[in-house]
Amino acid sequence: MTSSPLSDTSLDQLNRRIQAYLRAHALRAADHERCGVFLASFDAEDDNPYRNYAVPDDDAVPAAADIDALISAFVRRRRKPRLEYIAKAAPQVEAALIACNFAIEKRYPILACTPGHERDLAAPKGILLSLATSQDVIVAAAEALAEAYGQADAHPASLVRMVAQGGVLVVAHDAASGSVAGAGMATPVHDSVSEVAGIGVKAAYRERGIAGALTARITREAFARGIGLAWLTPGDEAPERVYVRAGFARASEQLHISLP
């Protein structure tokens, strides 16, 4: 495993930068709500838990009223109360939530990459990578991602908004058929920070190096736009190895916690 070269001080700064990014990302949602020391964001079109979550303020010390307000905000929208955040940037939040019957879903490693550390992974033969800017291509990317992640419905509107706000969306095309084999994105920047996310490849195209090529191309494009820190959370060890090959290294940890 590639280790992070950051010092303890730099790691604290990195944690707070990513936490600030998460809050800024929440504010971009059409539906967001301040609940005491928490900022929650919601997707009215998609009840996927990963699109509906809250982030605490740095060094937050939640009161019972804050947690009650948080739960109420999710329940009103028929969403599962949950959070995704950098625990080390708000170290007292976890215990307060667990005392209110929240349960840890998972602790995800955070991988980070800075300009000069990215790697160029070429797309495999027969696959072409391109930026998605037109409505038709964005819709095709949304459909490909829904298939890649086993979702019944595609939600292109969120991708359209993401691209309009300055995010990067890269699509992998089958050169022979023209169909979209996979896609991935770097979200709109906040304070030179962007998240590389949603890397998905259809089952028929997997194990060919497309995910790594997408990650590398997205990261290079993000840095070309002036982003100074790209980060992501791999779901398990297999995709983590892909991201490491693209130049990412473990740097921190993200806590996912929810009310069962």
Number of domains: 2
Q: Estimate what percentage of residues fall within beta strands.
A: 25-35%
Q: Which consecutive residue ranges, at least 5 long each, have pLDDT under 50?
A: none
Give the spatial strand order of the biggest sheet: 4-11-5-10-9-8-7-6
Main structural class? alpha+beta
Give the helix level as a range of percent.
25-40%
Radius of gyration of CA atoms, rounded to a whole number:
18 Å
- Tell me about the biggest sheet? 8 strands, mixed
- The tally of helices reads 7
Shape: globular
Q: Tally the beta strands.
A: 11
Mean pLDDT: 94
Distance between the termini: 33 Å
* Oligomerization category of the chains in this entry: single chain
Secondary-structure element order, N to C: HEEEHEHEEHHEEEHEHE
Characterise this structure.
The structure is a single chain. By secondary structure, the chain is of the alpha+beta class. The chain folds into 2 domains: 8-110, no CATH class; 127-227, Aminopeptidase, CATH 3.40.630. Helix content is 34%, strand content 27%. The protein is built from 7 helices and 11 strands. The protein has helices at residues 8-28, 64-76, 93-99, 135-148, 156-164, 210-224, 237-245, and strands at residues 31-35, 38-42, 53-56, 82-85, 103-113, 127-131, 168-174, 180-186, 193-201, 229-232, 249-258. The strands form 2 sheets. An 8-stranded mixed beta sheet has the order 4-11-5-10-9-8-7-6, with helices on both faces. Strand 7 and strand 8 (180-186) form a beta hairpin. Helix 4 packs across helix 5 (156-164) and helix 6 (210-224) crosses helix 7 (237-245). The chain is globular, with a radius of gyration of 18 Å.
